[in-house]
């Protein structure tokens, strides 16, 4: 017996043997079981998805004699053993007229075909006309078919199949029940090929079947034909290397190796992988297409992991690889890959174009980020926050912040800077005796002893010199402490030549602590009183969020590091570890190099801590440095606009000429100087 190809040998004989197309199978089975039969069916879809197979199965269902004669004999499960079923399977059933419209396009052929429609079936229950590639019929043929297609005799059924339904006239489409057959996904093809090869006792490698399933492009018949070819090529076996050589396609593992090198930002490894590919003489344009295709799948894996296809049997590999890229990098690489594909026509050679495109991807990454941070999957709003924040999630973060608040107020009691912390609230009641400090100070100097005042001054200066050392951002306080104090004790005019006018009111609140506490214990208070908040801030205690906002500009951060820190709020500080909460919209910018730079800047400011930056929703009502800067800028802009609107000259221009103030062009004086 001659060899029968797999595509014909394993052709489905019933609906239940059909692979895929469940939506069509369900509709036809229900219609057959309920006796709701239409006179014309149209099956559309690409080649090899089962259009003709479905039509033949339907013909067997209509003419199977196992159920007896009459309409009650129609069944959705043909027996396959009665004379009608066997004749249809063998292609010799008289009442199944198969017409190839591609070779019989003339109107004369159609009229000859329709001349026999009126006659009753010879052998079966129904006379079935199966017209394949019906879109190839001429306009005259369609016109000749219309009337019969709309009102055929009760014993006639029309089954039409086409790969291009757009070419059918609307008058034909409206007279048929249309079923669109879908492409076969690679997973379905690989599963079916596995069963067929196991039944055929052919050894195979699963990775080779994935190559065949991808090359079939959704056609089960093409997949079976390619499998026949692979068996012959591999001498009775289906191996990955043989199938790759037979198809002439690029090994998908080389593309994954390229992307792994991209994930490591290793340009040398990227060039080495391209050199290894060059030994196989591939189509470098096709290599770039494969790279951009995988980048698209990586983006899907980051955003919606469940939607990632398994077209190459590499779903788990891509999910792991997607976590090694940031979402911004993938979008950037994809855009550069698309543009590089168009530039290949102008490159000296395709390999150069591929290498330059890959190197351009690495060159245009944001600088200062050697390796992307681990990306939580999926990359949805608050879906990635728990994965990134771990134990410091939204709920944990709020609890931690709440518990940190009392700790922050209690810690100074046990910490070394307790006097400085206690002196901060002291100035609150002291503005009341403010008018009397000057005479009281002069009268209070003699009682302790004339030598006491000179002795206390060096101690105050020593304390002032030792205290400001850690916080370099307080540049005015050390300079103002001693001179201003002496000026207040000697004469008021002294500060005027020493400093501009803003320093004149500074000596006035200074004596208040002296008048309120003339005891020797308050000797250090006058040095800290002029800048009581600054002195408290300078103490190496806990860093509050208010301190973070005040000192942010003085930290000296710049570039991406400053941008990252500007979107953070202080969540907790226990003296050893500082936790910042990062706006989730900026989570992709977080990298170890930026965290280390922020930690070093805080250490230089006197706050040596283990720094942790956690992702998650920010507390309500708490501003980040960026939000505070934007708010202050908006307030300054509003003040500037109000000042212009109230200006008499502007009002005259508005009244005389109907002038209009364009508020978007108004800039405050500070902004205009910059």
From TrEMBL:
Function: DNA polymerase III is a complex, multichain enzyme responsible for most of the replicative synthesis in bacteria. This DNA polymerase also exhibits 3' to 5' exonuclease activity.
Compositional bias per record (Gly residues), positions renumbered to this chain: 381-396
UniProt-listed InterPro entries: AAA+_ATPase, DNA_pol3_clamp-load_cplx_C, DNA_pol_III_gamma-3, DNA_pol_III_sug/sutau_N, DNA_pol_III_tau_dom-5, DNA_Rep/Repair_Clamp_Loader, HLD_clamp_pol_III_gamma_tau, P-loop_NTPase
Record's protein name: DNA polymerase III subunit gamma/tau
Catalytic activity as recorded in UniProt: DNA(n) + a 2'-deoxyribonucleoside 5'-triphosphate = DNA(n+1) + diphosphate
Species: Halomonas halophila
Feature: compositional bias, Pro residues: 426-438, 494-512
Ranges for region Disordered: 369-539
Keywords: ATP-binding, DNA replication, DNA-directed DNA polymerase, Metal-binding, Nucleotide-binding, Nucleotidyltransferase, Transferase, Zinc
Family the entry assigns: Belongs to the DnaX/STICHEL family.
């Amino acid at each position: 017996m001659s060899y029968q190809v797999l595509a014909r040998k394993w052709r489905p004989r019933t609906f239940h043997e059909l692979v895929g197309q469940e939506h069509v199978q369900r509709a036809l089975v229900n219609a057959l079981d309920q006796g709701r039969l239409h006179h014309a069916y149209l099956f559309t879809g690409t080649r090899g998805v089962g259009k003709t197979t479905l039509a033949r199965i339907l013909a067997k269902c209509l003419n199977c004699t196992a159920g007896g004669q009459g309409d009650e004999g129609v069944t959705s499960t043909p027996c396959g053993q009665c004379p009608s079923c066997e004749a249809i399977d063998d292609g010799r059933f008289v009442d199944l007229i198969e017409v190839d419209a591609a070779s019989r396009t003339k109107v004369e052929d159609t009229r000859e075909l329709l001349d026999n429609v009126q006659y009753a079936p010879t052998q079966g229950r129904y006379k079935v006309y199966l017209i394949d590639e019906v879109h190839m019929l001429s306009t005259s043929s369609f016109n000749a078919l219309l009337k019969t297609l709309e009102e055929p005799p009760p014993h006639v059924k029309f089954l039409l199949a086409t790969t291009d339904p757009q070419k059918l006239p609307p008058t034909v489409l409206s007279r048929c029940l249309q079923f669109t057959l879908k492409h076969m996904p690679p997973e379905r093809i690989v599963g079916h090929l596995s069963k067929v090869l196991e039944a055929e006792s052919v050894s195979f490698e699963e990775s080779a079947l994935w190559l065949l399933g991808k090359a079939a492009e959704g056609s089960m018949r093409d997949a079976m034909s390619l499998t026949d070819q692979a068996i012959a090529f591999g001498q009775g076996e289906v191996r990955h290397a043989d199938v790759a050589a037979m198809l002439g396609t690029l090994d998908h593992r080389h593309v994954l190796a390229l992307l792994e090198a991209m994930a490591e930002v290793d340009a040398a490894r990227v060039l080495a992988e391209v050199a290894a590919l060059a030994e196989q003489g591939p189509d470098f344009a096709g290599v770039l297409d494969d790279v951009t295709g995988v980048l698209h799948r990586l983006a899907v894996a980051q955003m919606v992991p469940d939607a990632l296809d398994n077209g190459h049997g590499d779903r788990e590999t891509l999910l792991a690889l997607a976590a090694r890229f940031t979402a911004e990098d993938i979008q950037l690489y994809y855009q550069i890959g698309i543009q590089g594909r168009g530039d290949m026509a102008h490159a000296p050679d395709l390999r150069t174009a591929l290498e330059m495109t890959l190197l351009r991807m690495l060159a245009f990454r944001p600088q200062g980020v050697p390796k992307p941070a681990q990306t939580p999957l999926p990359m949805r709003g608050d879906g990635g926050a728990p994965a990134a924040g771990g134990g410091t999630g939204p709920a944990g973060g709020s609890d931690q912040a709440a518990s940190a608040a009392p700790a922050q107020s209690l810690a100074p009691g046990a910490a070394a800077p307790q006097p400085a912390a206690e002196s901060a609230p002291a100035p609150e009641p002291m503005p009341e005796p403010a008018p009397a400090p000057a005479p009281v100070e002069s009268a209070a100097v003699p009682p302790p002893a004339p030598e006491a005042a000179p002795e206390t001054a060096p101690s105050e200066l020593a304390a002032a010199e030792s205290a400001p050392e850690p916080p370099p951002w307080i540049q005015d306080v050390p300079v103002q402490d001693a001179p201003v104090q002496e000026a207040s004790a000697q004469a008021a005019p002294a500060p005027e030549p020493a400093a501009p006018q803003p320093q004149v009111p500074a000596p006035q609140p200074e004596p208040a602590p002296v008048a309120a506490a003339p005891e020797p214990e308050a000797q250090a208070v006058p040095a800290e009183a002029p800048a009581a908040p600054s002195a408290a801030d300078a103490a190496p205690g806990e860093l509050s969020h208010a301190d973070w906002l005040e000192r942010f500009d003085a930290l000296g951060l710049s570039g991406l590091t400053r941008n990252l820190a500007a979107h953070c709020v202080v969540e907790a500080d226990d003296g050893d570890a500082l936790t910042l909460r990062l706006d989730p919209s900026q989570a992709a910018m977080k990298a170890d190099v930026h965290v280390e730079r922020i930690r070093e800047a805080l250490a230089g400011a006197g706050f040596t801590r283990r720094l942790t930056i956690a992702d998650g929703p920010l507390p309500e009502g708490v501003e980040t440095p960026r939000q505070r800067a934007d708010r202050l800028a908006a307030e300054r802009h509003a003040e500037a606009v109000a000042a212009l609107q109230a200006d008499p000259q502007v009002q005259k221009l508005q009244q005389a000429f109907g002038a209009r103030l364009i508020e978007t062009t108004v800039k405050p004086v500070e902004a205009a100087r910059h």
